[in-house]
Amino acid sequence: MKLLTVIGARPQFIKAATVSRALAEHFPGAREILVHTGQHYDANMSDVFFDELEIPRPDHHLGIGGGSHGQNTGRMLEKLDALMAAEQPDWILVYGDTDSTLAGALAAAKLHIPVAHVEAGLRSFNRRMPEEINRILTDHVADMLFVPTQVARTNLRNEGIGDAKIHMAGDVMYDAALHYRTRARQPQWFSQLGAGAFALCTIHRAENTDDPDRMRGILAGLAQSRLPVVLPLHPRTRKQLAQHGLELPDTVRVVDPVGYLEMVWLESHCDLVVTDSGGVQKEAYFHGKPCVTLRDETEWVELVEVGANVLAGADPAQIRSAMERAGSLGDTPKGLYGQGDSAMNILSRLAGVTPTA
C-alpha cells in the first residue's frame, strides 16, 4: 500500500502523525509520501517541532502560501497534479478543511486516484467560512470518508452520500491527545505569571479578527472574566488588534504563541477554555475542561448537546454568562470521539480495500 498524504498546517501534521506512527508500527510493507503544501507558515515548525512530536519530515515541500484562497488552491493544484502523476499512489489521504485539503482531493480526483478524507462530514452550515466550502467539496469527490462522529455520518447521508463510502473511525486528535499527554510540558514563562486558577483563550479565526465590532465584543466579554485569562496571541490577531486600535483588557495576560506540547499542558491545567478554534474545542473535552466558543455555530455540535461546550458568539453579556455557566458544569459523557484507535481504524480499512479508479 502506497499513500500520498497532503497537509498544509501544523494541526494537520499532528493529526497525520498519528496515522504515520501506526503505519510504521503495524504496516511494515506500506509506504507513505508526506507532502507539505506550505499553506500556513508557522515559526514553531522547526526541527524541534518534528523531533519532540516524533513527526516525520515532509518528503516534499511545495512552498505555497501567502496568497488568497483561490491563488493558493490553484497553485497547489498545479504542483500536486505533477507530483501525484509521478508517484501514482494507491490512495491520496487528506485531513480536515484547509485549502490544502481541497487541492489534494481535486488533484487526485482529476487523475482518478482514490481519495480518503479524514475528519469527513463536519458541517457548521455557515458557507461564509472557507473551511465549510473546503469540507463539502472534499467530501463529495472523496472515495472513502472517515467520520469522527454519528453526527458527521448523518450530515453526509443527508447530502446523498451512500453508506458504502462512509466509515466510522473516531477522531485522530483523540489518538494524539492520549499519545502526547504524558509528554506535555509547562511553558517557562508560566510561573512568572503568578496565575493560580486561569482561563486559557485562543482567538484566530478571520470571522472574529477581521471584524472590529466582533473583536470589541469579545474583548469586552473577556474583561468581565472572574478568572485571569491567559492568551497565547496569534501574530495575525496581534496585527489586527493594532490595525483596529483595540486594546486588551487588564484581565488578559498576553503571551507569545506556544508549541503543541505546551498547549497540551495549558489545556490540562486551566480551569476553562475560551476559543474560536475547532480543534481546541475538542482538546478541551479530551482534557476534561469546559469550553466557551467565541463563534455563533460549531461543527462539533455534540459537545454543545452534552453541555461540554457553550456557544457565546461575540456578545459581551453572552460571553460573561457562558464563562460563568461553563465553569460550573459537571462531568460530561466520555467516548464521543472513539477509543483512541482511530489511526488503526483508518489504515485497516485502507489496507483491506482494493482501490478502484
Explained architecture:
This protein has helices at 10-26, 47-53, 69-87, 99-110, 130-141, 150-158, 172-180, 190-193, 206-209, 212-222, 235-244, 260-269, 278-286, 301-305, 316-326, 342-352, and strands at residues 2-7, 31-36, 60-61, 91-95, 115-118, 144-147, 166-168, 199-202, 229-232, 252-255, 272-275, 291-293, 309-311. With 357 residues, the chain is an alpha/beta fold. The strands form 2 sheets. The protein has a 7-stranded parallel sheet, with helices on both faces. Strands 10-9-8-11-12-13 form a 6-stranded parallel sheet, with helices on both faces. The protein is globular. The mean pLDDT is 92.
SSE blueprint:
Layout: E1 2-7, H1 10-26, E2 31-36, H2 47-53, E3 60-61, H3 69-87, E4 91-95, H4 99-110, E5 115-118, H5 130-141, E6 144-147, H6 150-158, E7 166-168, H7 172-180, H8 190-193, E8 199-202, H9 206-209, H10 212-222, E9 229-232, H11 235-244, E10 252-255, H12 260-269, E11 272-275, H13 278-286, E12 291-293, H14 301-305, E13 309-311, H15 316-326, H16 342-352
Helix pairs in contact: 1-7, 1-16, 3-4, 4-5, 10-15
